[in-house]
Every structure is written in structure tokens, then in C-alpha cells.
Batch of 4 targets.
Target 1
Amino acid sequence: KTIYVLNGPNLNLLGKRQPEIYGHETLEDVERLCAAACPDSHTIRLLQSNHEGQIIDWIHEAREAACGIVINPAAYTHTSVAILDALNTFEGPVIEVHISQVHKREAFRHHSYVSKRADGVIAGLGIEGYVAGVRRVVQLTA
Ligand code: DQA
């Protein structure tokens, strides 16, 4: 079984971008930790795009290819009805992850379209949040 770990805009710069908020670890570190958290029954496919349509295409692909989705939609969290609609076509578990504690930050980060669909929401645990998300998907799809 495959778990899609989807990442939205600017997360390619994770580790370099505002490290005081997002930390020094990179998306490769996220991939390594997620893979290490996976039992033999599951594998990780970690993807990142700065383009909304690409993320939607991956969610459509996940309908056939994935048992669950862990998604950090980054800024699209707060703007994208299209990503919400795409996630609503997916039948498996969806866990929303934010590296930072978005509720402690600017008011525009407090609302999430994706939370209308997510089965779990994790914020403020740093990149450990992805690991918690993967573990939850494994548990729900065992
Ligand atoms: C983020 C929080 C979002 O508000 C922000 O736009 C991001 C990253 C996080 O992981 O903390 O790009 O999703």
C-alpha cells in the first residue's frame, strides 16, 4: 500500500526558508523519517509542487494509487476550494499537516479549506507532524 505525502508551495525550500518558523530540516529529512515510520506493508511517495493544478492531479492519481494521503497544502490550505474538492473525491484517510502552529500566527492562517475534509489535523509539531500523519494512515489502512 502506498501513502502519498503531498506538499504545497514553497516547501521545496524547507530548511532554507524562514528556519525560525519552519526549522532547519529539509523535505529529504521528511521523506527519510516518513519512510522509517512505515511498516513493510506500506510505502511512501513524497511529492512537492508550487502549482495548485499539479497537486490536484496528484490527488486524482491517488484515487487509484494510494491508500491514504498526508498533505501539507502550505498557503493553498487557506485559499484552495479546488484542493478541497479534489480531496473530496478521494475515499481513503486524509491527514492535514502544518509544520508551524498556524493558530498562533496571522489570522489568515487560522482558516483551512482542507480541514473540511481532513480526518486529522496536525499543527506545530515541526516535521514530526508528518510522521504522526503517516502513522495514523497506516493504522487506519492496516
Ligand atoms: C504551513 C503553514 C501555512 O500557513 C504556510 O503558508 C506554509 C506552511 C506549515 O507547514 O506550517 O507554507 O502549511
Target 2
Amino acid sequence: MSRLIVISNRVSTGGGAQGGLAVALSAALREHGGIWFGWSGNETSEFSGQISLERIDGVTTATVDLEEQDIEEYYNGYANRTLWPLFHYRIDLAEYERSFAGGYQRANERFADTVRPLIEPDDLVWVQDYHMFPLGRELRDRGIANRIGFFLHIPWPPRRLLATLPEARALVEGLLDYDLIGFHTEEWLQSFCDYARDELGGIVDEDNVLSALGRKVRLIACPVGIDATEFAALSQNDKARQTFERLQESAVGRTLIVGVDRLDYSKGLEERFLGYERFLTEHPAERKEVVLLQIAPPSRGTVDSYQRIRSTLEGLAGRINGAHAALDWVPIRYVNQGYPREMLAGVYRASKVGLVTPLRDGMNLVAKEYVAAQDPDDPGVLILSRFAGAAEQMQEAILINPHSAEEISDALRQAISMPREERIERWRKLMNTVVEQDVMWWLKRFTDALEAIPASQSAFIDA
Ligand code: GDG
């Protein structure tokens, strides 16, 4: 078995409060041996490429500090203010600055210089996400002939949106140096093919191998999962049970609806609140029987668009509560803080409706966690946006268009009145998928596909 070199913006080894993805990548690193490389999260006055090596729970991590300018231009700039909004279809929020693009390229070159000496000839190299698009090419330029895979955790935008990015062509050309590119869904994969065909004259064969500009790269749709068995067990531990009981007491007989999202404009929180308000107005009789608990830990607080969405939501929650609350009831509990995972599991289990309404989302793990945490004898109902990658696998949820307040309102009504047998039937199908296509399934599918690529494929083909 080849060693694995995982490369991502940040490195987290699955200890403490880490999510399922970090746990799975750590498990793969333990099995294959290898190294997890990335930015330390720290700033240094002058970049030195000094690697800090650590061994945590059987996983070797290698991290490097970046200069303030790198962090500003690469991370806060190009990653968070250019690529993230553009790839979530928000060109209105995307900032196109040459300095960001330059800093992004520089940081990737620095990553390549730093990780290069750690890579041995038979290692599988696996690059994660949009922070690192150019890394494959930079490694090739430094003589790395290994199999290199790339996985994109966010959507791939439609061709005409991507074309608004000044560096679009160079970015996609750079991706041709990978051997394998993974997307969560067929839809994101097809959007990538559209661009490669129309802008680069590429050809995609029946095995999803793209040939363009004399290079070949294999494409796969490989949806990420959660550790469903672990999460189901978590929902029954002491801390989860205490949270469950506390919520049940505080909701006194009311139906709890839950949303859990990083505070991000892609998650459709504003539209969710408006859809919920619509439900309150359209169904006065049910009004006081429901409570919406929205957990939204703030993120990327230095970026303007995140400050704006935060204040918009505060205003909206205040207005809805002001307009609809009664002496003994507040319609929205809006909480701007994070909770430990086992408490979240208890929150999901206590909630009869999981409301997941992103406007665009690569996958959305909350939808899967919500399902995994349910009581099999009395499960809650998942309402899910059609525009989340998860919708491709989770057809038994109530699927909605998150831009339509009416659809959200109708879906809430349907979920709240759904008979137990129907809830159980839908949940069983959803749970089967979440358990079968879990995070270890995802990991194995991707690494097997990478390992199956003949080592020579990364060389030039005849044009
Ligand atoms: C990217 C893509 C893709 C949230 N609040 C708390 C908390 N969380 C955890 C959830 C879940 C995770 O954060 C969020 O996962 P998502 O999938 O929703 O979204 P992103 O962070 O945007 O991740 C996404 C994912 O990559 C994987 O490929 O699904 O589409 O955007 O696990 O539970 N965790 C804790 N406390 C909180 O308050 N502990």
C-alpha cells in the first residue's frame, strides 16, 4: 500500500472536537502511513519554509507558517473573497483583484517548495479543496511524477459564471496536471466538463477521462459522507441526552425545528427565516406549536460580506420575533455560537424537523448528521435544498427550492403533519444511504481510484 500525502489549507488530526472528515483523513493516514501537510494557521514575519513536524494519535503532521501578506492575499483574499463566492454562484460578492491572485499563486508555490522534500517516489499525493488548485502543477514543475489527486469540497460553477474570473483559464489548465479530480456530484463534474470542452477544446470519454491540451485527467463524482455509526452512537451519549432533555423541557410540547450552519451567505439563512415567517403567517393555528432553533457560529468575520450577513440576520430575527412573539413564546431562537459535537447530536435528535436550505452547497454534512442522530422509532423529517450536493443522494427528504418562501412554508407544514409511518419509511431509506456511503466509503473510493491510475498517465500524452 502506498503512503499517502494529504495536503490541505489547514491540518486537523481528529482529536477533540474535530469533525468526521478530519477523523476519516486521520484514519486513512494511520492505515497508509504518510504525512498531512498544510498551513499552521500562524503568521511569521518572513517566510522561511521551516516545517514543524508533529506526531499526534499516530498521524504525522507537517505545517508551515505564512507571512501576513500571504494570509491577506491568499487566504482572506483569493480563497475567501474571490473563489468562495464565485464557486457558490455569487459573482455579486466576488472580488477580482490581481494582488489576491498573485498572493494565491505565491502561497501555493511556497507550499510546493516546502512539501516537495517530504514526498517519496511511490507516495500517493492528495490535495484538498479550492485553496490549492495550482498545487498539482507546481509539484510537477518541481519534478514530482507521483500520482496526484485533487478533491473539491465546494460546487464547481457553471461555465459562464467561471468565465468572469480573470484567471479562469489558467486555473483550469493547471488542474490538468492532476491525475484524478473528485467532485461531490455529477452536476459539479458536468459543469467542469462544460468549461473544459468549450474553453479548452477538451474531449471527455465514457470513463470520464478528460483529454485537453495534451494532458489527461480522470474525473469522478464521489460524494463525501459522515461517520454515521459513530454519530448515531454520539446522539445517545450522556451529554447528548442531557441536551435532548433540556431542549424538550424548554420547548414544552412544541415542535422543534432546527438549523445548524456556519454563518455564511451560501447557507440561505435569510431565505430560511423568511420561509419560516411565511409559515407563521399562513398557518396561524400552528404558529405557537413550533419553535425554530438556529445555531449559527460566526465565521470569516473579517470579510465584509460576512459582517453584512450577520447584521442582516440579527435584524431579521429581531423583526420576526418582535412581530410574532407572545408572552410565553419566541418564534426564533437565534444562537451565534458553536457547541460540542455531542451536544449538536442531542439537538438534532430533539428536533422533529431538520431545516437545511443552502442556496448552494458542495455537499452539506449537517443534512447527513441530522438523519444519523434520529430515533429510529420516532424519527424527524429532513427538509433539504435541491441546491445542496446532498440532494443527489437524499431524494427521500422533502426537497425544496430555498429561494421560495412558499415552498419552505409548505414543506414545514408537510413535515409537521407527516404521519409516523411515512417518517419512518423516509428515514430508513435516508439512513441506509448515510450509513452505506459514509466517510470511509468516500475515502476508499477516491484513494482506490487514484491508486488504480497507471503511474505513467501523469506524463504528457500525444497532442
Ligand atoms: C465544506 C463544503 C461540504 C456546524 N456548527 C457547529 C458544528 N458544525 C459542523 C457541522 C458539520 C460542519 O460543521 C459543517 O459542514 P458542512 O458540510 O455544512 O459545510 P462546510 O463547513 O461549509 O464544508 C460543504 C464539506 O466541506 C465537506 O466536503 O459538505 O458543502 O462547503 O459537520 O456539524 N460543529 C460543532 N459545533 C457547532 O456549533 N462541533
Target 3
Amino acid sequence: RIAYVNGRYVPHGQASVHIEDRGFQFADGVYEVVTIVAGRLADEQGHLTRLARSLKELSIPWPVKPRTLRMIITEMVRRNRAVNAQLYIQITRGAAPRDFRFPVNPAPTLVITCRRTAFQPPALLDKGIAVVTMPDIRWQRRDIKSVSLLPQVMGKQKAHEAGAFEGWMVDDEGQVTEGCSSNAWIVTADGVLVTRQPSNAILNGITRLSILEVAREQGIGFQERPFTVAEALAAREAFISSATTFALPVTRIDGQMIGDGRPGPLGRRLRRAYMDHLG
Ligand code: PDD
């Protein structure tokens, strides 16, 4: 396994960053996770566009030109002989003596790692996953894909301890914002596909955007709006989306069965269509 750190390709176990990196001290950085399917990056352009946006929102300079980043990514796929894998890209504001204010001449840190993965086993797709709900205790700029992930770390652990795969976070109005590391979807009791609209309250998932595009192409109607936990519990179907899970059926929320307790047809169809769209 080869990692990339600031201009160097190094064996994964030997890769390191400075102890005064602002990513380490302040979580002052952003990231992307891109899945490699059959040697090709899924939704690469979407992820790089969102990375650019996250950097801009935090005034973190590009460590290399976007064009160079693309070349490094291609080289990482090649050097790791990545077929089915996950690529992790992290950019922080770099190493500097600890001071909350931005360093005057920041040298951002770019780290890229690659990990082989097996995709969701068919058994999981057949059974669907369990989700538990929890208060959304995050900050108000969830649209930025920041490495500041403590609420999600706590949430995922809580979900894990409850025997669930994902946590759905709920805002003060009782509306689901999103999963700890995924977007949340339901098919309402009336058969309408619903996922929350992009805003500062959620991360606008790249997989989410692609699934909406696929739905549009297939003439599947949808609504982008918040939904409550009660509406989700009464839904016919539910699923999550992310770069690592694609569309993954949810069959239990807070221990309650969704629909007939089996993955629903629309979620299945969208997953298949999304996989086809990857080519
Ligand atoms: N997480 N919402 C949150 C809070 C996320 O962390 C993610 C992705 C998503 C889905 O976005 P996308 O479809 O672009 O992956 C939504 C990644 C996979 C992670 O942190 O591992």
C-alpha cells in the first residue's frame, strides 16, 4: 500500500505528517472519500467540485493545482493497483505553531490514502440495515466536508452499540437532517421519494446528487424537503446514500420495522440504476 503525503509517494506504514499540523490540532481541514469501482473513480468530478467548495468556504489554499491533484489520484490508483477500493483525500491548512488565527503563509497538507474494500455483501442488501435516531449536535456549517467529525464519531459508536449500522441525526424541529456519514431517504406511505434539500444543515452528498439525477432520467418523481422521524417510521421504504454504501436499504428505525421489513423496490431500483450510471 502506497500513500501520498505532500509530494511524496511512501509506503503506507511510513507515511506521516507534522505534529503541529492544524488538522491534528484544530481539525482545520477538509476531506473526500471516493470509491473506486472496477478501477474507476465513482463520481470523481462531483467529489473534486465539492472539495474545491469546502476549501473555498474555509479559505484553505489548494496544495496543488486541481489538474495536478487529478494526476496524483490517477497515480495512486495505479500504484495501489486499486480495483475495488476507497480513496481518501484530506487537505488541512498545514503545519504552523499553534495559533487559532490562520498562518500568514500557509502550506496546506495533502494526504491521499487508498484502501481495498469489499462492497456490501448481498446478505446485507437482502436484509437491509438498522438505523437509530439521535439529536444532531453538530455545528451549523454541515455543508462543508470538514474533518471535524466528533459528533459523527459519537453517533456511529452509539448506533453500533445499539446494533445499528447508521445513526440518523434529528434537528430541533424533529426533522431528520442526515446520517452520521450518509444522506437519508424515505419513500413515504403515499409512495413519494423524499430526501432533505441541500442547505447548511446537511452535507450535499455526491451520491445523493447522482441518485437524484438517475431518478430524473428515469422519470421517478421526488421531493427535496425535510421529513420527521414519525414520517420515516410510517414510510414504505427507507435507505441511505454515500460514496461507501451507494444506496443501502434501511429496514428498521429505532427498532421498528419499515414497510414490510424488507428492502423496498424503489431503493433497489435506484441502487441498480446508480451502479449502471457508474458504468
Ligand atoms: N461520508 N452526509 C455526511 C455527514 C457524510 O459524512 C457523507 C459521506 C454523506 C454522503 O456524501 P457522499 O455521497 O458524497 O459520500 C452525507 C463519507 C463517506 C465518510 O465520511 O466516510
Target 4
Amino acid sequence: MRFDIITIFPDFFESTFEYGILGRARAAGLVDIATHDLRGFTHDRHRTVDDRPFGGGEGMVLKPQPIFDAAAGLNLSPKSERDRTKETVILLSAQGRPFTQALAHELSRIDRVVMICGRYEGVDERVNQLLCDREISIGDYVLSGGELAAAVIVDAVVRLLPGALGHPDSSRFESFGVEDAALDNSTGDAPPRTTHGAGGILDYPHYTRPAEFQGAEVPLILQGGNHDAIRSWRRRMALRKTLENRPDLLEKAVLSKTDQRLLDEIVEQMEQERTEAP
Ligand code: SAM
């Protein structure tokens, strides 16, 4: 897989992709990441990449020409002939479609991803219209530039590439991932997985040694050897975390009858905790 990032700050990425899983994936040749300095595609003495907005208003807008020239050097197919499953051009934008784990999976199956980082008030809309296949936002907030968003997308996508993680299941059975029931050893007497299937909801809380830290104890169930009890506790905690932090996910998640029962119990328990709170 190859990423090309068009930016006015190529140095921003210098160390960003050197660490951990990303660094190893690059060293192993799983992914190639190139940055392209937008100012290198200007034709004036000041290397101007921006201009004043039509219609007035504050701020500056990135001009289309340097971006088109930068993209021309990447040998992409024209937008109308582009096979989006092989190559895709992304405009990073607060106005874009939300970046999700599902979209990260989709991008991980594409050979070539080009990302255009905006700055200032944004990018001339004709870049979106004539060059880009997707307009993507990494969240409901405004960054000062698309570079951080590009780094977020590269990180989330590369860890999904086959061979990037120590265990291939790690990226399947985590927050937003597939359900644990999809695994053969998800029931019965096999040891519970450390990365449990979330099935569209959030992951459960994790603990390691020591068993007691600053007065807070690791739940006793996790310290015992009852695998079924551990699975059930983890599912309950994943549901509770999702209910507390991201109730919207529960509306879309496929929940079993057991999940529904656990959720009813969790709601009751939370109600009780509220009334008992001082
Ligand atoms: N005027 C724009 C607006 O209100 O939507 C904000 C422009 S922002 C200051 C400059 C650049 O940062 C954008 O062109 C985009 O590339 C990037 N950016 C800002 N927020 C982003 C987000 N949530 N996701 C992805 N990119 C973002």
C-alpha cells in the first residue's frame, strides 16, 4: 500500500511515522508513505499557495493550481476513470464524511491513497469537485490543518494491513470490531481472548499486574480461572462503557438476547448507584 500526502508542512511527518506498529510496517515494506511539498509546485518567487477568498471574508484559501500540479506528478488516473477500489484521493476537511473504523477497513484494501491537507480557511472547492473522490473529517472539531488528520488516518489504516500487528485477530476483536462469537474459541472452556470481540461497541476495560494499585483492586473475576465468568464480565463491561460513553453505538450494534438482558441489568445497576450516591 502507498500513501501520498500533499502538504505545505512535509517536515511535520518526519518522525510521525517512525514509531511502533507504523515504523515496523514501513521497515517491513508493508506500506510506503511519501510527502509532497505543495510549495514545490508554485511558480512565483514567494512560492504562494494561497489567495484571498472570492466573496470576501477573513482568512486565505489554498489555490487549486499547485494542488493539481502536485497531483499530476503522482500519475493518478483521471477522476472520471479512477477505480476507487485501487486508488483514491482524499480531501481532509472538517466538512467531510466522518472517518470511522469501517472506513479505515475500506481504505486498507486500496493500493494507493492520496491525501490533500488543507490549511487556512480551507481549499478551493474545485479541488474537491475535480480531483478528489472523498472528503473526510476525523471528528466534529476544527483543526488548524489537515496534517494531523492525515496522520490519524495513516495510523488507523496501516495497523489493519495484513502482517502489521503481531496477531491478525487483534485488529478484528477490539472497539468497533467484529463480534467475539465469530471466533471458534469464544465459548466453552478455551481461555478468554485478551482482545475480546466488541461487535460494533466499545472494548471492555483492561488490567495488568499488580492486582491492587493505590487501593483499587482488579475485579476478582479476572483473577480467577472461570473462563465463562470472565467472558460474561467483559461483555457486561463493554456494554456498560458503551452505554456510558457512546450510547449511539448501541442503536446500530447487533445485540443478542443475552446482551439485552445484561443491558437491562446495567441500567438498573446504574440507577441504583445514582440513588445511593451521596
Ligand atoms: N473553514 C473550515 C471550516 O470551518 O470547516 C476550517 C478550515 S481548517 C482551519 C484548515 C484545514 O484543516 C482544513 O482545510 C482541513 O484540511 C483541516 N481540518 C480541519 N478540521 C478537520 C477535521 N475535523 N478533519 C479533517 N481535516 C480537518
